[in-house]
Queue: 2 jobs
Job 1
Amino acid sequence: VTSGTAEKTRWRSFLVVPGRAFDFGIDTNQVAEVLADRQGSDRFGGQGAATDLADLLGMDTGNSANEARLLSIRTEGGAHMLRIFGSIAVRQVAPASICDLPRAVRRGKPGQILAGVVFESGQAPLLIVDLGRAWTSR
Amino acid sequence: LPAAVHALLPIQVSGRWLVLDALAVQEILGQRPWVPVPGAPVNVPGVLAWRGRAIAVLDLGAVTEVAQPLAPGDQRPRAVVVKIGETTVALLADAAREVQQVAADRVRPPHAARLRFASGEVEFDGVPMPVLDLGGILEAIAGVGSEAA
């Protein structure tokens, strides 16, 4: 608090993709559009044009039986389509609550696109995926 | 402590007692959920929250080959936070005993309790237990010891 005025927290918004024991978060600034899978495939030339989040992370996110959606992603590396499964939500996070990941756990290729983790009581841990790194590191 | 006395902490991992240098121990926590990180090495499979940051989980069972590697969702009743140099990691354990003050000559070369990364052996209640070289473990695990974790 400064001079009687509450200091504003600059929240960051993440699109949350639920996983088994934790969630994945994608910065909403990187998401231009969320589309149904069929709608996106029609517009962008077939399902092969999209990358599955599970493939990007090298793991089964546990949602493949659920409805698929396509995210239109814009990064400095260009525009891409990302396929995700399951329900999505938006979560706001104070930047100070984003913890860096130790380098020891980021040695694998999927780890290189992870930007941090958020632990908040009452909520699933949130692993933040930096899609800018995803397509520039390929 | 006089130089001739070691402070040692016995912890149990999958039924096997292992001994740590108690001076490296920062805190012994109860069961803490840990987050598996996609693509992380098997010996350092994830992170847990500690004092406002994320620290690596070191799978002591897998490293010493006394247990199967931790799988996502596996929990242990204790998380022992240790700091070696600038590196802080959490070791998941089934139990931890009180710190034992031990005369240096009671720590013998590994014999009955030979184990990967055992630098010595000490007997508590008639049970020989390997004393682990935590620094050696961190060095060996792909440079974990060369960073601030």
Job 2
Amino acid sequence: MTEEQATEQFEKQVRERVEALRAIFAPLARELKPGDEPAPVFRPDIYPQSS
Amino acid sequence: MNIHEIEVLLRGRKISCVELIQQTLADIEARDKFNSLITITAEQALAEAAERDRELAVGIDRGPLHGVPTAHKDLFYTRGVRTTGGSLLYRDFVPDCDAAVVRLLRNAGAITIGKTNLHELAYGVTSDNPHFGPVLNPRDPSRVPGGSSGGSASLVAAGLVPMCLGTDTGGSIRIPASYCGIVGLKPTYGRVSREGVLPLAFTLDHVGPLGSCINDCALAMNAIAEVTDEFHLQPRHDFRGLRVGLPASFYFDRVDAEVAAAVHAAIDAMGRAGATIVSVALPDMAKVNAAALVVQLVEAASLYVPCADTSQFSRNVWNLIAQGERLAGHEYVNAQRLRTVFAREFAAVWSTVDVLATPATPITAPLRGEANVHIGEEIEDVRSASTRLMRAMNFLGLPALSMPCGHASNGMPIGLQLIAPAFQEPRLLQWGRTLEPLLG
């Protein structure tokens, strides 16, 4: 397999996997309502502290 | 030896901390055929052990972890000791500070003997690391230990240390615990600090212990949790008053028959000991997994796409990063919005049950090099099969415990997963402790 073919195969695999995920995910996103907002999941512990 | 057994030897002056560390290092040299460690910090460990001995001699006792050997997944910053992340990107990275949890464990008296091997960048489930060599499963070296905390799990499963630190973004503590037949706890999101830990996906990453038994994980949590000293397990023998939820869907679909039988047997044991077993309907967990995967792919891509130099990554890891790169900003935000929706739906579960019991993984440890596994009549890729029953709890941030509950006919351990409401780790570990002797 040439490098070009390998790259093409890689890209195809990535594209197919993303599309497979979108097939499940996109209908869910369409059902979201205006009040459905991201929760504040970040906490102070993720920020590096001076020590 | 578990931590309690070590504690008895040290407090009884049957062995010194230095002798224990010398013995541990000799055992690793002689018996670690599993490539569990990337770096061994022998000199530093012996110096710390000598200091712990001096403390005991003058009556300073830091508690149950005093003098106990441990190791950290090579994702945790260790001052003056390289932290590779299992990656070429960080192969020469020497932090100038310790991760918060490394500091906390040292303050509790634990002695770091090294840094454990892992899946490259903690982004995978086999710990077949192309840069530092594959980790092997001590129960059967022809099989993977699981990942990404594979080296931590193999070191504990081989009996070389009683407890190690790991991280869990989509199952990376619980999968290797299940495949290696040890205990692994993914705490509630935010319960344990991630300061000084190489990230993979900011809002899904969790730090937790892998131990030889439930009590080892509890003792580790006492040292590393944001609210410490809560994890004192009692010798309870029954589950009276406990409502155990048996998921009516998803968690027992596409599960190996022997795995399902062992998990059901464990749940039956809880029932015989007084628990009420309740069939419970859950949100569509396949949908939860899909949204969680969008978040993981995009967050990981945000870290590594800017690196641009693909030669620094294995093909499999770059494939995942490339997937994240192709997802759009609106898709990421909507996945985070769905997180709120699913968390709200899932919260209703806790009005009817106290804990959920599920298989940890639908299979036992796959063979090395195996890309797909057979589950009944179906074929599934190893990554999907390993993470399928795990990923949702990273998204929802709920604590989940993997503990051994038997063996399959191939001799490999089977894992039971117990899931609890947020910040209920002390109760979760207590239930595990009560169940442990009932499972033999």
